């Protein structure tokens, strides 16, 4: 948490997290409107595997969707999981998202089937799920552990289904890589409790 955020109340953090995620999702919807108006010109920002020029699309691909149904399916989990992850600090949240998007995007570029085009926020969603599921246990925070258990109960079935390689038109590779990147982010950005003060006699 930054110095500025350290003085925030719980209400301040919730308000900031809510505004950030509403703005994030609004941007995704705006981009999809632009995509439709432009005759789906933005779909080219998806990732085509192992094409060197496509590496520049690793980040943009996380903000592009193939139709409003695709975006609608991602909207609620991104809002909720993003909000929960951002409550602990916006700076760490943005770093976590950056790590997930980069690792997931590069991984998709490396291992997805040839002649495919992968885009969407689902890799980030799976990453935030993995991050929230892991970080509470790592940091031994009761509220974080409870949050992880609740999101596992709500979205665990959908997450497992999204990892199945039998679904046509679904990037299980992107989902798996996003999940792994989120777990890794929990370790990379782990917060350790402050050392107790030294007792001097």
Automatic annotation (TrEMBL):
How the protein sits in the membrane?
Multi-pass membrane protein
Look at the named UniProt entry and state the broad enzyme category this protein falls under: hydrolase
Whether Hydrolase counts among this entry's keywords is yes
Keyword annotations of the record: Hydrolase, Membrane, Protease, Transmembrane, Transmembrane helix
Cited PANTHER family: RHOMBOID PROTEASE, SLR1461 PROTEIN
Transmembrane ranges, per UniProt, are 21-42, 62-86, 93-112, 118-138, 145-164, 170-189
Fetch the Pfam families from UniProt: Rhomboid (PF01694)
Gene3D superfamilies according to UniProt:
Rhomboid-like (1.20.1540.10)
Q: Name one GO biological process term.
A: proteolysis
Indicate what this protein is called per its UniProt record. Rhomboid family intramembrane serine protease
A single MF term (Gene Ontology): peptidase activity
Membrane as UniProt keyword: yes
Q: Return the EC number.
A: 3.4.21.105
Q: What is the lineage of its organism?
A: Bacteria, Bacillati, Actinomycetota, Actinomycetes, Kitasatosporales
Q: Where in the cell is it found?
A: Membrane
Principal localization reads membrane
Peptidase S54 rhomboid domain residues: 53-191
Tell me which InterPro entries the record gives. Answer: Peptidase_S54_rhomboid_dom (IPR022764), Rhomboid-like_sf (IPR035952), Rhomboid_protease_S54 (IPR050925)
